Amino acid sequence: MNTPPVALTIAGSDSGGGAGIQADLTTFAALGVHGASAVTAITVQDTTGVHDIHPVPVGVVLAQIECVLRDLAPAAVKVGMLGRPELSEAVARVAAAGRLPRLVVDPVLVSTSGHSLAADGVVATLREQLLPHAHLVTPNTDEAAALLGTVPARSVDEQADHAGALLAFGSRAVVVTGGTVRTPDGTERVDVLAGPAGTVVFRSPEIATDNDHGTGCTFASAAAAFLARGHTTHDAVLSARGLVRHALRTSAPWRLGSGRGPVAHTRTTCFEATPDPTNAPHSQGAPR
Ligand SMILES: Nc1ncnc2c1ncn2[C@@H]1O[C@H](COP(=O)(O)OP(=O)(O)OP(=O)(O)O)[C@@H](O)[C@H]1O
Ligand SMILES: Cc1ncc(COP(=O)(O)O)c(N)n1
Which positions fall inside the Pyridoxamine kinase/Phosphomethylpyrimidine kinase domain (predicted)? Predict the structure, then answer.
């Protein structure tokens, strides 16, 4: 049996298992990637919300990162909740030293349940210190607006403008997720990828579900896992969308918890076997 590629997630723990480290590790496992982790914070969290946050000391987070980098040589790294500007700065220093390969940055600021997951100053340190070293940045429309100091995109064109504007902070590619467009046939979900070779718009029908806690973490960690497996940025984004859509469809009828339930990370192993005609890019010019 071949040795699996390794991916490292630097993220917070979600005790409810829907987002954060728990979503990342189950997603890595579903994609045949060995998952290593550096826990940045322990959140007291369930499907109804975030009830408390206990930050892990910066030195302890760095020690976890160091020993994983030394021993396991990850092929890709995903960064989620950092929570504090001093931790963003510390992780950015490791990235600036060129030690975080194929770095996927999910700029986690607020949970689906509406709780702040980032203190003042995190937006500025992400933008100025971490983003320049990222291979791919995966903000949703609200996070993109916060990073740009503007209001969330209201159209696909504005979403594409925001993705392009975020590229100016120095990352190789940016995908702004979570746009919605109403058509005569219903609502579509739109993600816009901008990179060195142009802009690609992905549009697919919305999947009706209350179980969407953790979509952003699952998307970003799936993209990191596909990059670790050698996919191009465009193909990693396309496949990550496919995985999230499969997870949303599978869990749509489930009832887990009394709030917004988690997507079905555990049922994503065979999603590649099922071609998904609803997941295709709308325009060409893919970043490589
Ligand atoms: N109801 C849905 N139907 C189809 N696709 C969805 C739905 N909800 C989210 N997605 C997709 O999930 C992926 C993650 O994007 P999303 O914008 O939800 O991240 P996020 O807001 O950061 O998530 P989180 O809730 O974890 O913060 C994107 O590809 C997005 O299009
Ligand atoms: C530890 C942690 N990391 C990230 C999120 C964001 O995910 P969501 O927006 O789905 O709540 C979260 N809720 N908790």
Answer: 14-263
